[in-house]
Amino acid sequence: DTRVETHEFQAEARQLLRLMVHSIYSNKDVFLRELISNASDALDKLRLAHLTDSDLPADVSDLHIALEADRERRTLTVRDNGIGMTRDEVVGLIGTVAKSGTAELLRQLEESKDAAASQDLIGRFGVGFYSAFMVADRVTLLTRRAGEESGTRWESDGDGTYTVEQVGDAPQGTAVTVHLKPADAEDHLFDYTDPWKIREIVKRYSDFISWPIRMEAERPDGESGTRSETETLNSMKALWARPRSEVKDEEYHEFYKHLSHDWQDPLETVSLRAEGSFEYEALLFLPARAPLDLFSRDAVSGVQLYVKRVFIMDDCRELMPEYLRFVKGVVDAADLSLNISREILQQDRQIQLMRRRLVKKVLSTVKGLMTSDPERYRTFWDQFGRVVKEGIITDPDNQRAVLDIASFASTHDADEPVTLRAYVERMKDGQEDIYYSTGQSRSVLENSPHMEAFHAKGYEVLLLTDPVDEMWVESVREYDGKRLRPVNQGDTGLPAEDDGEDGEKARTERDRQESDFTPLLSWLREQLADEVKDVRLSSRLTSSPACLVGDAQDLPPSLERMYRAMGQ
Ligand code: ADP
Ligand code: MG
């Protein structure tokens, strides 16, 4: 059956393709990195499939990637003899964008009218296979799934449709051929059939790929002749196995981009080596930007598991807690079975020890940044603080460590977030507790009448506006022996309310006021009987006539909502 079927790209895929065709991304070289990265993944998958099922009828004798340039026809082919795809996989994987965050990306692109901002968004998303359309006006993909009889040919020129047809004699694996757009001086399109250009790109972006990337090239031979020779373009060294001092930052950065599909350099590189009875090496990265799907349910976590240099799995959640789900990297363990399953991972004690150590290392790295590079720490916290704070609740063992690296908006300085340590250090004489206020925005909190007494005393108040804040404040009793207290619940514990030289005078004064205001208070209680529990005189206000206060045991969010609903 050699019917050629024409299919439409899924709507989101079409939109992404259009962006690629119109080349909003200026660094077009990266298309080759994306195709090589896919080829490398396909080889990893085949090796693993073969290791776990030796009956798989696949050829694993010479797994590699081949680059074939044809200067006359202006094509470049990236060929692998890896796992390949079935027809349905081609349609499902290439014709649609299943990646989480796509809708969000497209929405933001729609809104952003600025080219630089759009590039930045695309870069954070990583468009993978479709990036071929930055340089090509047609892309052909020929593939055969390892173990299957026949193959599939896919082709598209990047408009709304693609074709698929069955082919009898495809080699195992996948060959992607890009038909290069005419070289256009204005477009700054390089000649991607030039062996020098290809060598340069592979060296820069894909040197660490653990499979050989080969290319046939003409070499001078004898007086005037040339002969064709196969070169291996990459060094194939597993970066995590090399001592940190021998690896250039750029190499780490390219490796990070390969792992994360991010087009931006990471914020920080973390490496770790454990020796002894359970050996492993880890190379982790803190991204510089939060991914678009940070809060999506189906976002994949970023840690890959290897066993003795063999790729085992992506998205290894057992190695990194959810609140550090943005950490990318590789963990290579020496003593695990290649057949290890997720179920076993979840129970394995060694894995748990490993995870504990990795978490501590990540947290201490961030702590280090706070002093060594406050600017970068600030970037980190701006991007990931909202997620990291989940750890205050979900990781009791590291609660203190997470609190130590956290910073919060406060009344002290509108632009500088404060750490709890700094807060405690500048507490006013006589101030016993750490005060905070939770709610939806800084301005609402700042202008709340609850704040008046604190303003008057010059006490700093933390302004907590992330949803997670409402939760963690409930689980933290104290920091450095100082209680955390909400400004809008129960007794504020402000010293003037009970203590001090003026205490006696203040109390008599209040007793006098109480009796003066008894009729008003009971009238108010009656009028508001359905709305509030009680109406009291308070010393917490300095200029507003009234404010709503919750009991210490009340839930703050519901109160907040009521408060706003009543027009404050
Ligand atoms: P990603 O690599 O982030 O998943 P891509 O757009 O690069 O996204 O690729 C989409 C999917 O197409 C891959 O996840 C993979 O399943 C499939 N694919 C792409 N290239 C190959 C290949 N050379 N061999 C096998 N499958 C491939
Ligand atoms: Mg890819």
Automatic annotation (TrEMBL):
Quaternary organization: Homodimer.
Basic and acidic residues: bias regions: 503-514
Role noted for this protein: Molecular chaperone. Has ATPase activity.
Entries under SUPFAM superfamilies matching the protein: ATPase domain of HSP90 chaperone/DNA topoisomerase II/histidine kinase, HSP90 C-terminal domain, Ribosomal protein S5 domain 2-like
PROSITE patterns with a match to the protein in the record: HSP90
PANTHER family in the cross-refs: HEAT SHOCK PROTEIN 90 FAMILY MEMBER
Organism listed in the record: Streptomyces lycii
Domain Histidine kinase/HSP90-like ATPase span(s) in chain numbering: 27-184
Protein name per the record: Chaperone protein HtpG
